[in-house]
Amino acid sequence: ALAAYLVKPGRRSFALDALSLEYLGRELAPATADGQLTLGADDEAEAHALMVQARTVLDLGAAFGERLEQVGATELLADIELPTSILLATL
């Protein structure tokens, strides 16, 4: 989401499904309504949906790498945004 913000700060949603559709042309099916795995008959389908989401994050990383270069924000992400987000996550 940080890379997406730096590429297009005025966008309305930074949700994974919205970014996947716009930048990769892929629709994501939710794992469950609350995004958590549940025990039951659908465990395999839910696990698959989570794996697809993880793959989408990797693919978006590659897509945004190119776009960050185009807008000159690669160093901003690496030197400021990511270290700051790590620091804030520890608070």
TrEMBL record:
One of its GO terms (molecular function) is nucleic acid binding. Coiled coil: none annotated. InterPro entries: RNaseH-like_sf (IPR012337), RNaseH_sf (IPR036397). This is DNA polymerase I. It comes from Streptomyces microflavus (Streptomyces lipmanii). The lineage of its organism: Bacteria, Bacillati, Actinomycetota, Actinomycetes, Kitasatosporales.
